[in-house]
């Protein structure tokens, strides 16, 4: 275990950012925190988590794929892949760190791999930060995530006087070695972990009962009449999907600037009415079907395809951001556990 | 340039055949004049016109055709309207093949086959039919029940009459929805015709057509004594990636692009009816 005195953390950031691009969670000056490229004078946010998730750095909201040049009946295809330089993200919380595993299953391990995502994953180094003060909207523990001991290449703990670091991977250990930090006693981090776990234990949704959300109950859950009631207030705004660290759905679109045609990929949302729209119609005609799709995907379809792992990490962003206060906790409480 | 599965290659449309008032069949080769890739019957490809869009189409030609690929496409949306308006020699982009395809070399081997198609639903089945014709000795009897709104809406009519109907061991049963001058064949909907024909329940059925046809034909087959394990169909839902990642073509926990598009009907009992 290594240690950096709190007053020196920005010196460490400066050193890291000389070699690679470094992202830290900082206030955006408007209302929320976000991962921003570190520059001298920037400070870490006091907020528990960023408004948008850390997935942006591996799966950006918009990215270029290809360019086409058309002349008469001829087409030329030009690769538009953005260069990806090595980068470091500091301050990823346990929930967002788990979301990378969830996205990895889809983009890396399901053949064929997505080479855009793969390149970013290979070039990114993740430094997680244990959550000293999980909030009421946090429920990562319901998914077996330990906010006191997040994964990543390096795990960091923030204490009153210092940051403690533990390398978890070769890549992480190599960076720590380069930084020439002081050796630290592991006991301090252990005490911090116990304190965090004591708070996590008391989180109101931390023990969310997910009984009944599994492959075996797929049809039963799909046919549950309570989806109608649950989805009634949903506006279909898609906010939950955009702040969600595990939402992976994307659209492929084109932009014609008159000279060439740019094909790009951007996030999409199953909450939108045109998501499954084809020339002859859509198979999810009302918000009920679209709402059901989102939560069935997180709680039943994803676990069914990936060994029981849920497609939610309990970050609580959808609880905070939904304009009509509907969310995955409400769904799980209504359809899961004793109510199943 | 690192190749990504989302990147297409160039194709050239070398021939366009008008089948019906709203269906054309497009012949596609790569820029080198060869078939763009190898597929199995029932698999699909993403075709695109830059600036218009990209969409998934079943490959209607058989893999045994080594020279080119064919796509029978009904004009109904942005991409298909553009395709219908273009002229031979036009370049397009193509990527694939996608999906599981029909189990032509496993489950279908040695079986008596009944193909049931409605309208443009013949497109994916034509690939299987011509594959079966090519390897004729590997299969038992072949029945083809094909219906459309009118005689003019029957896709591949010339091939059906000139080739399929004349081949020994293949029985073609055509039907149209309403009586029409110059038509002395069967008149009526496909599901009823299948029931009238009353096939031996040991046969394997391969269906494709509008959902309503699938629904009533299946009901009729079950009445005749068929089991859902003997009936196969192929689906199509909105797709963007065709790689099981963009997240929109799922029926329950299955993605049509990756786990389908071909499903056996007993498998569909385990999935929500959201298609």
Nearest-angstrom radius of gyration of chain A?
22 Å
Total helical segments of chain A: 11
Number of strands of chain A: 12
Strand order of the largest sheet of chain A: 3-2-6-7-8-9-1-10
Order of helices and strands of chain B: EEEEEHEEHEHEEHEHEEEEH
Question: How would you portray this structure in words?
Answer:
- The complex is a heterodimer of chains A (340) and B (275).
- Chain A is built from 11 helices and 12 strands.
- Chain A has helices at residues 9-19, 94-109, 115-123, 170-179, 186-201, 218-223, 226-231, 239-243, 287-305, 317-321, 328-335, and strands spanning 2-5, 21-27, 33-37, 62-71, 74-79, 87-92, 124-129, 154-158, 162-167, 182-183, 250-256, 261-267.
- In chain A, β11 (250-256) and β12 form a beta hairpin.
- The relative contact order of chain A is 0.15.
- The mean pLDDT of chain A is 94.
- By secondary structure, chain B is of the alpha/beta class.
- Chain B has 2 domains: 9-98, Elongation Factor Tu (Ef-tu), domain 3 (Beta Barrel), CATH 2.40.30; 113-234, Rossmann fold (3-Layer(aba) Sandwich), CATH 3.40.50.80.
- Chain B has 6 helices and 15 strands.
- Chain B has helices at 78-85, 122-134, 157-164, 190-197, 211-224, 265-268, and strands spanning 9-20, 23-30, 44-49, 53-58, 69-74, 91-98, 113-118, 142-148, 170-176, 186-187, 204-208, 231-234, 250-251, 254-255, 262-264.
- In chain B, a hairpin with a 3-residue loop joins β3 and β4 (53-58).
- Chain B is globular, with a radius of gyration of 18 Å.
- The interface between A and B is large, with 52 and 43 residues.
